[in-house]
Structures
1.
Amino acid sequence: MLKFIKHHVDTIVGIEVYPMLSFMVFFLFFMAMLLWLVKVSRNHVDHMSALPLSDDAPQVREHHAH
């Protein structure tokens, strides 16, 4: 089964560009997240990490249409 799929994939013109393209997308996303992590302030990280435990978070009210 794998030989059958591999044979058909090998016959596609230009298929060799897709692994490099997917690697570049992953690498750029990873680097962007790393850059954001370095630049984000410690206060923001502390604030975001405390949000689920915070009692002063605004309460969401459910509105029911009648």
2.
Amino acid sequence: MTNELREILTNVLEVDAISEQDSSETVPNWDSVRHLSLVMALEDHYGLTFEADEIPNLVSVQSISEAIQRRAAAA
């Protein structure tokens, strides 16, 4: 996880720290509203757009990291 991604996650989810193993199941603040805010923050910061069917799968730090890497590789 990059420092940029860590900063976005901690800011949007309002947590002090987050790890590669964290997910919507381990972070109490990661609810549906924050999930959408997180997706919008990621799209804005990285200049990308997630497909509608991709958004429900972005429920862990790992899945988010992988999605961003796939997008970067495809660009």
3.
Amino acid sequence: MNLSFYKKKPQSGYVRYLLTAMLLVSYVLAGAQDGGVTVTGKITAAEDGTAIPGVNVYLKGTQSGTITDGEGNYTLLVNDSKGILVFSYIGYTSQEIGIEGKTKIDVAMQASVEALNEVVVTALGIQREQKSLGYSVGKVDGKSLTTVAQENVLSGMQGKIAGVTINQIGGVGSSTNVVIRGAKSLSTDNQPLFVIDGVPVANGMNNFRTMGDRNEVDYGNAINDLNPDNIESVSVLKGPSAAAL
């Protein structure tokens, strides 16, 4: 008679339950040992008390962080109950608040009063600081275009930008000629490139059509159709570097 002994295989469900319980206890003990805490709160604007969504909330010196939801609420699990929370958002002054064992921290953020540097829109929507440009920029405010009513927006810019010659070649409704720092082309069209809200617009001078018995009619150029009341500002980029854009 052969007698053999076999180790009884434990039930797998019981083992999984036991391991889960052990991991949970270890996690709780580790959190208690490291001083971990879950911090919640709400971020509002100090001036009117409205909730601010998308505020960055993180533990200083770490990559542990979160952002506020649509109602300005946040929840963040940190492993240092004596750490410092940093609250930052564009347009508001950043704040640093010590946790000090607290589980609820509400913050009223103050609007930032820092002035932004003046920027110029170059080429197709590219923004640059004016002081960093390597070429001259002339600027006309939209209000100055409507102070004295003109036939079109280009006529309203006449005499307001150095180095820019603007004149109407015919009667009412005819094309307006714009030349920056003199004629540079051997063709019949020396018009600059116009970019309106990032969209290039042709402003050629070849808008003549023959009507009747060889009578040419000038139908005007495209920029003449703009309403000066809808223009916030006009920037004129001058020089070879600007032309390269």
